[in-house]
Amino acid sequence: MNITRTITATVAAAALTTGLVACSAQEDKAAETAETTVAETATETNTATETATPSESKGATEAEAGTVAVDTADGAQAMVPAGLAEAMDTYAQAEWGEPLSVEETEEGWITAYDGGHYVTWNENTGGAPTWGEIANNWLTTVEPEQGLGFPVAAETPLEDGSGWVQEFENGTIEWARGEDGLFQANVNVTN
């Protein structure tokens, strides 16, 4: 997915919503066409953006709609659920920098930062950070194939000091040193 296109569609939808408030009766036809175009574009880019009609948007604020704008490293803004913005404020470390991308998936939202750091959020988890090999395995192999769900907490060291473990909605991923001395991912799906 092209994140620039996603952010552009989100910003366009936000601008359209603001502009629709001021539409006069003779501009309704043009606004309706633009509204349809933005809705189609947002659907194509898998972006959760709602376009309000003039009567729906009167007096509505971003907070009332449940979305807020977050700045990204490329200077753009992305409209995200307020819960994701709170999770980003809670878990993202200053050394990670500004978000590189913000993506909505079927199960929730993933914000990517520098160095392979991520902040994830969905309504079930309330948000959690993930990084390193656990994040890499979850994003590329585990989740698409095994339905582990989203992280529910940050990774923690294993008691024996051999690696780390992170809890997900439907199990865990361990990144631990095996008997052969090499690190490997161990996935435990509970559902």
Which helices and strands, and how do they pair?
Layout: H1 3-20, H2 28-44, H3 54-57, H4 62-65, E1 67-71, E2 77-81, H5 82-91, E3 101-104, E4 109-113, E5 117-121, E6 128-131, H6 132-146, E7 156-157, E8 163-168, E9 171-177, E10 183-189
Antiparallel strand pairs: 1-2, 3-4, 4-5, 5-6, 7-8, 8-9, 9-10
Helix pairs in contact: 1-2
Features:
single chain, 191 residues, alpha+beta, 2 domains, four-stranded antiparallel β-sheet, 26% strand, globular
Describe this structure in words.
Residues 33-53 have a biased composition (Low complexity). Keywords: Signal. The chain is α+β, with helices and mostly antiparallel strands. It has helices at residues 3-20, 28-44, 54-57, 62-65, 82-91, 132-146; strands spanning 67-71, 77-81, 101-104, 109-113, 117-121, 128-131, 156-157, 163-168, 171-177, 183-189. The chain has two domains: 3-60, no CATH class; 74-189, no CATH class. The chain contains six helices and ten strands. The chain has a four-stranded antiparallel beta sheet.
